[in-house]
TrEMBL record, chains A, B:
UniProt organism field: Fictibacillus iocasae
Keywords of this entry: Cell cycle, Cell division, Cytoplasm, Septation
Any GO BP annotation: cell division
NCBIfam families: PRK14126.1
Subcellular location: Cytoplasm
Protein name: Cell division protein ZapA
Subunit structure: Homodimer. Interacts with FtsZ.
Primary location group: cytoplasm
Function field: Activator of cell division through the inhibition of FtsZ GTPase activity, therefore promoting FtsZ assembly into bundles of protofilaments necessary for the formation of the division Z ring. It is recruited early at mid-cell but it is not essential for cell division.
Keyword Ribosomal protein: no
């Protein structure tokens, strides 16, 4: 339904700075996403105290992209497996 | 096998800056991850020319985390579905 896809604007705090995120996700989902990015950045900073915020943010993106690509591959394999079973 | 899990150190360029990533992934995989983060940052920059690199990197992390959480949910549902079918 078109109603479900209405745009939201949510302001979140990540690593001490405000960001306004707009999109079709719910504000609750955006807040969860922001919380996880904030957590990841703080975790990276704890292990690499010499990095600046830009570097920490890039590494958080790298880390998340790595997990995303791995899980995407896992999902692809499972879908392939299901298709093979159906044939 | 322990051999498969040996540590690699790969230097990549993301958004014009070098990053040395260490981990158990292959260098080929790390280069792919870095390329995707670089692409995403350039895409964000194109749509938001007033943002600085730190903000672009944080938004790239947010964007990727959003996709990661969605695909993770999809995988969970599929696994649940398979378990229900097995019962």
């Amino acid at each position: 339904m078109a109603e479900d896809k209405k745009k939201t604007r949510t302001t979140v705090e990540i690593y001490g700075h405000p960001y306004t995120i707009s999109g079709t996700e719910t504000s609750t989902h955006i807040r969860l996403v922001a919380e996880k990015v904030d957590e990841k950045m703080r975790e990276i900073q704890m292990h690499n105290r010499f990095l600046d915020t830009k570097q920490i943010a890039v590494l958080a993106a790298v880390n998340t992209m790595n997990e995303y690509l791995k899980i995407k591959e896992e999902l692809k394999k499972m879908q392939q497996h299901l298709r093979n079973e159906e044939e």
